[in-house]
Structures are given as structure tokens and as C-alpha cells.
Amino acid sequence: MSPQQQVRGNDRVTTNIARTFSEFRTAVSESFVPLHVTSERPDPFWGRIRSASADEVHVSEVSASEHVVERTPELIARADRHYFKLSLMLSGTGILIQDNREALLQPGDLAVYDTHRPYSLVFDDDFRTMVVMFPKHLIDLPPDVVSQLTAVRMNGRQGVGGIIVPFLAQLVGNLDQLSGPTGARLAHSALDLVTTMFANELDVTRGPVDPHHQLMQRIRAYIDANLASTDLGPGQIAAAHFISTRHLHGLFREQGTTVSSWIRSRRLERCRRDLLNPLYGDRPVAAIAARWGFVDAAHFSRVFKAAYAESPSELRSAGR
């Protein structure tokens, strides 16, 4: 156990209080992914990390003195999980550097970064920030699309950001709400809003209308709207958008995936949400699978366990 003081408000909310730089360095890597942390003023130093998790969504509030955080290639090479992290500056300023881009973040600004590629965070003075860390598969945008937004400042004081930031700020101020039966729904609501913000930002940064991008947006929306249909497949999707199946497969290949893999991952994620939803606590696993297009319960259990490293029943039991 690390030397910093740990205070648990309930079984899922933890506060790590570090009164030395060494304690804070340990707390940072334990709270997120392994990171290299340095400071030009390590003494005196103070830091605090409040955190809670729900269904693989990890929400933290970090307050600390001046320091620099680096995710190095050596640390990445030892990682077996790929996450996105979203930062919302609450007070102070910070600089995020990734993919040859640099974003100056002030209170109300947001930025996303990828733990599977090198990045740096620079804080020159005392600050407070919210960090949402989540597996890449939990949002319905391909990772290579989101990668266009890494280290890009997103304004949370107007437009779509002005709607989303108040929700995130309320969430980090009420971390205890992530525990209990509504936690997973709150976490996924946050990710749905974040996905909306990403999609909006991509539209803004693209400038003139990109027909290729618009087509992929329509296709992904069509797939999500028809996940329950057992007939959903490349032929139906291509016909609905007046393109050839060859063109459709090419579009998904450019995204680093396949049509069938995308459909399966979206169906699995909907099943995962239902399994964690207390409203469906009495519904059989097979019924939930069938609701999202899985007609073979045994096949569903196999692909679910392959994707999430636990069976549907194990996930449901752990979430109770």
C-alpha cells in the first residue's frame, strides 16, 4: 500500500491525500495508468486525488501543486489495456501535448488523449482538474477518428461544450452517485455526452462538408438503430445507403475494422449496459442477448467472454 493517506467515503469513492511529492507520484500511477511524474518544486508538495468508478469508467478529481506527467513509450510497451482520458480543467491551467499537437487548457476547457501513445501534461502552478478514463470500446466512434482530436482544446463554455461541462462538473462533485444501481447509467450518460461533443468537434474542425464523413456517420447511426434486427448485415446496410457492399467494406477497412466486427461490438456493448441495468435485473441473459440480435445464447456467452474477460452472468453478479 502506498504511504499516502487513503480515505474511503463509501465502498467505491476513494480520496488519496499526498503530502509529499513521492506519495503523489505513487498515487498518480495507482489511480490511472503507469506514468512518469516529475516536479521542479517537489518540496513542499501537496496533492489530492478523489476517484470513483462504474462499469470501467473511472472518474477522478485531481488537485495538486506544480508538476509534469509523461506517458513514455517504455510505459506504453508494458500496457495491455487501451484507454482514452478526457480532462476538464476546473481551476488553474495546464498544457497537454500529444501527436505533435499542444493544447493550453484553462478553466472550462476540455481535451482528450490516448494512453496508448506518448503524451505529456504540464502544470506550472496549483490546479484542479477532472479526468474521465475509459476503455476505447465504450464510445461509438472508431479510435482512429477520435485520434484526430487528441490534444485539441474544446471550449466548454459555449455551444455543445456549454451543455456538457455542467453535467461533468456535477458528476465530479457528486462522485458517491457513481456507486449503487444508478452508477453505470450515469457513467454511460457521461460517455454519450462526450461522444456527442467529439462528433460535433470533428464536424467543426473538418470545415467544409465532407461527404465521406457524413456517409460514415449515417451508416453508424443506421447500425445502432437496427442492432435488434437479426437481418442486419453488409447487404442490408449497403442497400439502405445506395452503395455496393465492396464500398461499404472499404469504408470500414479505412477505420481499421470490419462491418461484422463493428456490429458485434455495438451489440455486445448494448447487452453489457442492459446486464448492468437494475431495471433488467430479472430478465434472463438469453432474453437480453436476443433483444440485441444474438439468436444463439451459447454463441453470445462465448463472444461476450472473449470481449470482456468475464461471462454475462459474472458481469451481472459483480455489478450487484
TrEMBL record:
Keywords: DNA-binding, Transcription, Transcription regulation
Xref: SMART domains: HTH_ARAC (SM00342)
HTH araC/xylS-type domain sequence ranges: 217-318
Keyword Cell wall biogenesis/degradation among record annotations: no
Superkingdom of the source species: Bacteria
InterPro entries xref list: AraC-bd_2, AraC_XylS_family_regulators, Homeodomain-like_sf, HTH_AraC
Keyword Transmembrane helix: no
Protein name: Helix-turn-helix domain-containing protein
Pfam families: AraC_binding_2, HTH_18
Membrane-crossing segments per the record: none
Organism, scientific name: Leifsonia sp. NPDC080035
Single GO term (MF): DNA-binding transcription factor activity
PROSITE patterns registered for this protein in UniProt: HTH_ARAC_FAMILY_2
